[in-house]
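#data-curation
PF: Archiving a pair of folding outputs for the training set. Convention for this channel: one message per protein, sequence first, structure tokens after, nothing in between. First:
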Amino acid sequence: MMLLAWGGAAAANAKRVVILHSFGQDFKPWSEYGRSIRSELQRQSRWQLDITDHSLVTARSSNEDPEVPFVAYLTALFARQRPDLIVSVGAPAAAFVQRHRPQLFADTPTVFTAVEERRVRFTALSENDAVVAVRIDYLAAIENILRVLPSTKNVTVVVGTSPIEQFWMKEIGNAVKALADRVSFTWTNNMSFDDLLKYAAALPPHSAIFWELMIVDAAGVVHEGNTALARLHAVSNAPIFSYDESFFGREIVGGPLLAVLDSSRQTAAVAIRIMGGEKASEIKIPSVTFSTPKFDWRELQRWRISEARLPPGSIVQFRELSAWQRYRWPLMAIFVALSLQTAMITWLLLERHRRRNAELESHRRLLQVMHLSRTAEAGALSASFAHELNQPLGAIMLNTDVAERLLEANPPEIDRAKEVLVDIRQADQHASDIIQHLGSLLKRGSQIELQEFDLTEAIADALHIVSPEATKRDVILRANGAQRPLPVRADRIHLQQVILILVTNAMDALDDTAPDARRITVQTALVGESSVEVSVSDSGTGIPEHMLCEVFDTFFTTKKHGTGLGLSIARTIVETYGGKIWAENKAGCGAVFRFTLPMLQVL
């Protein structure tokens, strides 16, 4: 409620300004003056303004009878709240205010603006009136045409049939009498606009068009906005000139023009002074005259008008930049890039010559070391096989000893001996698989046959193989994990080999540990919904911190009789199937090796 009350109070204290237009809010040039004046009032005012616009459409004809209801409308509109200021735009609006001031605005201050000084009835001004007039020098405007186009023989003056247009047709005629021996003039007040378009399209050489106004043509058609001028520009075979800046920007060539902003700024300044308490009749402002000549570069180019013919100090707008001006920095960058590229190509050619000579020498030396390289690779592969076969061969040896004791017993334990023989057969098969699968893994370019299987079952089989060795070493081997299938896609034997490598290394780490403290735990856990983590932890002394990043390097080992290949092979296998493996020390004691694998998504 307080905000509403404040808003109502602000509206009540606002200065009420009425802008009265001569023809309508869309008739050039007054439409441009109206918009600019409104903007300047808002910018310069120190009060909140309530601005309303009204249009005197009766100015399109000489009949003043329709003004009667318009006067009645304005009287009723402002009966309760009289405006603080009237701003009349154009001569017809000024004349209307002066004719009906006693009925409408007897005591209301008025600023007459955008009106040529010849159209102001200075003798009828009251003490509440201030004038911001303009002065149009038509002779200077026509002489500008002859200056930039010296060969001009005919000037067509575009003017309509409304009273104000007829007034200016006579004024222009009087102003250019001095040029009668240099150029002939054609007037369009007897043409419909369609006839004007046909006429402009067929003008003879050395012609020009001067746009005064086209409000009402000879056919009685009213033309608002900029449509008429734009249509004329589209078909005309002669350049178009005018006197007011509101027409500048596309269709006219240019020249000395009345600047809209000059008038609107002065109008707003006078209005602010009046609303601030100054008496309107005491504010005297000299008439606004032509500003510095300005021209449209595009029209100069279209009509081949040399800039050397323009008046001194002229401003040329809408100039299109040359390719060099527009793309100077990109072109310079391209030039620098080409220079650098040329230098680089030259350097590369020299480098290629030196490299070719070096390659020939390198090839000769390469032939010498190829034999040694093959021998080293064969030795490493043989060592890998020997290392990996230790687990199944050891299991076979242990199970053979057990089988012999079972058969030598009295009586022989045939059933248990059969179970041991099954374990021996499985270990033998595992050794055979190691030779086949590990060889394919280490051989560059070989294809690995992938299988879908349950990682939990594969781990259980691997632990079954290594359990005799664990029993022999007094190691407690436990398996914990997720109570659900863990489907993966890989080579089953390869992943079992990873488990065997990690468990065997863990048992080796427990050799110096008391028998009753030797424990190894193999655990599985889900990582999110797309990965599984397998960890092998022991109760040993752990790994020195500075070696944690090196334990997976080939031939790196901390054992007296180790080959340094086991963990390297384990890393190769895990990374082959898209996983990751690492080592860390537990908080209490011992080390833990972990690896992750992507898990199949079961639909």
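PF: Second:
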Amino acid sequence: MKYFLYIISFAACELFFTKKLMAQTIPLTTEQQLENLTDVQEGDIEDDQYLQQLQYYRQHPLNINTATADDFRQFRFITDLHIQNLLQYRRVFGNLVSIYELQAVPTWDITTIRKIQLYITTEDPINLKEEMLSRLQKGEHYFLVRASRVLEKQRGYDTSLNTHYLGSPYRLLFRYKYQYKNLLQYGLTADKDAGEAFFKGAQSKGFDHYSFHFFARQLGIIKSLAIGDFTINLGQGLTQWSSLAFKKGSEVMSIKRQAPILNPFSSAAEFNFNRGAGVTIKKGSIEATAFGSYQKISGNAIVDTVTNEEAFSSLLTSGLHRTPSEIADRNNIDQTAFGGNVTYQSSFFKVGLNAITYRFSKPLQKNDEPYNKFAISGEHWANYSVDYSFTRRNVHFFGEAAADKNFYKAFVNGALISIDPKIDVSLLYRNIHQAYQSLYGNAFTESFRPSNEKGFYTGVTIRPASTWRIDAYADFYRFSYLKFRVDAPSQGRDYLLQLTYNPNKQFELYTRFRNEHKQINESETDSVTHFLVVKPRHNWRLHFSYLISPSLTIKARTEAVWYNKKEKESERGFLTYIEGAFKPTRNLSANLRLQYFETDGFDSRIYAYESDVLYSYSIPVFLDKGFRYYLNMNYDVSKKLTVWLRFAQTIYRDQDIIGSGLDEISGNKRTEVKVQLRYIL
């Protein structure tokens, strides 16, 4: 019977699956999630660890017959409901004969299988003895060097100014990495940002930032071992979540935080990681993790006017150390962290206890603003929580209850439900006290950090036919205390509807409408205090991708934004682009994008994901009016050496100055060039 199902599945999947030859390394829905996350953070996302891991699994697919739940959780585009159903299927029917057999697993639809098919396999695993020897001998070594710069001269490089950048306009990245499957990896990453000195001044040791990691898995009773730099992910992000985690988007079932507690850190980012050692031990149904971290972090230094003692008002996350003032704040605080987790897990149920504590060499003292009344302060902070998850037939429940040092509470509870083979539903309720604080928390909330929020989210995915998919969500939330630019308790709501049409393996089209209503301060008022107003933001997008041939793909997008549409301060935004990806020869591939954008201001800004060199991506924000184009090329010089080149330029209409402050450029053009080389030993 099992092999009969396999034959039927194989025949069906041949109609739907294809392994494209283009350089696309992440699913289209993940691009959307990154765009949405950038909008929430309003800043660059430096974490490329996820892209590194996806690229590795493209070349070394994960064996789904031996993979654990934590292995599957590395893929953000499948949920714990998918994972638990697959593990149960393996327990009942044994190993899968082919990845096409995933169609027989409950909740695994064609769309989900397409997203993961490039990264998995069912090949027979090697024996343990060979595996232990292979960890040190059969992994992949590679060296990567990347250089980039803005060609136009920015104001900060004018040495006649009293304050100017002390280094060159080049950004440099060096990385060495060794990896054997998901069992062993180690490496070194070094990064210098544009404007930072190099082998001189404050950066006499060369690069501004160095990062080393050693990470091993499945060493007998030791499930994971980390030395150097690593990330910690606890519960649902109420206490700490350092790995990449998405917010609201078209993937309405991806509301649960899921990742191994202990993860390696090999990104070029200079913030939100631990430096020290961590270990996870597993014995039967009990799993325990402990870690310790010490590192120097950057903070905005101040002097307490009352005690005359040194303090810091905020953590600096940009990693930029280009001017004397930025260098003065560089690594000026010692941060020590200790914590751990104890988890009990059966086949269908898991419960964990989490704790983490921090200590700073200087006290944290936020600016004296009303919205900072409950902010973290002092030299010590701590968070504690209990998290759980269990699966009952077609429902997966999860949640976390947390408390901070001052015993203010926070709760997140959710469910993933497969109502029908064609209908999936997600539900999430959060209730976070206005005074609850966590230093590195990152839960599924409207705000970037979990604090001062109550809300209810519900999403639904409907597959009325094999070629159609409907994704929709509604989110209602309240903030019971003040926020930045919000001088009273406020509330909001957010809706999204996306329709996707995928008639064959060559063509995909989706259209999306999003409507957000959120209260903020009224900007035009003569009163001493502000009152709140709702300024709705509407967004519509049309996007398609067409595989013309194995060597040529085109995609295009049109997007429009209406902000505060019916009022006099209303803004509009528009963006459209077309992009072609082509592979004319076996060794050469390239993609070219042509784009036009036009917005009235910051509130009508538009983000758009851009292809980049390997292990990198760009999500620029587009304001004002102008054109943008970029060309990416990569050439395999040999089996070991690959070269990438990126050229991107934005041309603004009716502007003589671009940017502000020391980043200001005289003229209407901004041109970026990037070169990357990777050598595999």
